[in-house]
Amino acid sequence: MVGLMSDIGNIRKINEDSMGYHEDDIKKIYVVADGMGGHNAGEIASKIAVDKVIDYINSLQSLEDLEIVIKDAIQFSNKQIYEFSQTNTTLTGMGTTITVCLAAGNKLVVANVGDSRCYVVSKGRLIQVTKDHSLVQQLVDNGTITAEEAAAHPNKNIITRSLGTAPVVDVDTYLVDLQYIDRVLLCSDGLTNSLTEDEIYNIVINNTNETACKKLIELSKQNGGRDNITVIIFEGECKNDRNFTRE
């Protein structure tokens, strides 16, 4: 069973994160979005992103190529946000991150724009599937800073790609074979900025999906909770023992 939870955190006045999912006999869709833009703009952008991606995929008669489907869904969502932002000057600059999982059979396609993440638990390890579109990730990639330095970098929240800020957006996709995956986690950066991967892993494998979401958010808030925090956890197809030890 899917677990999902979103929390405003300890500091922010509104929750600009959005989340959603849809499951039927053919497919499963899971989405997390982290809005930006101030006032209510970020909240609106993230909700449009989640709703339009799910609506677009559900409107299709065929899911022959999951990668094309998920990219087209995000492009459609991006266009909706961008066009809405042009209707009022107070909405200028509104945007959102997005991370989407689309599963059919044993196949899972993950797509992201921005720094909301997808992780999988496989063979006793927590593995980050997505790659952040952020300033600090660029600095890590070019060797300017280390991954450890990135975790505490003062500009770690600056993203380099988002939905809604331009008519077209670049979307990264990743193909995952669910038969080797125990669980899948999507989250906004409010979680990953507050918890280590070891903390996330230990909570996920020792609890049900619903309880894990609750405990992850509780610990994030204990550790500061300076941002909104959103988590979705769902099952893979691996039938191995849940009680892994991390390598």
From TrEMBL:
It holds the Pfam family PP2C_2. It comes from the Bacteria. SMART domains: PP2C_SIG, PP2Cc. Residues 1-236 form the PPM-type phosphatase domain. PANTHER family: PROTEIN PHOSPHATASE 2C, PROTEIN PHOSPHATASE PHPP. This is Stp1/IreP family PP2C-type Ser/Thr phosphatase. It comes from Clostridium rhizosphaerae.
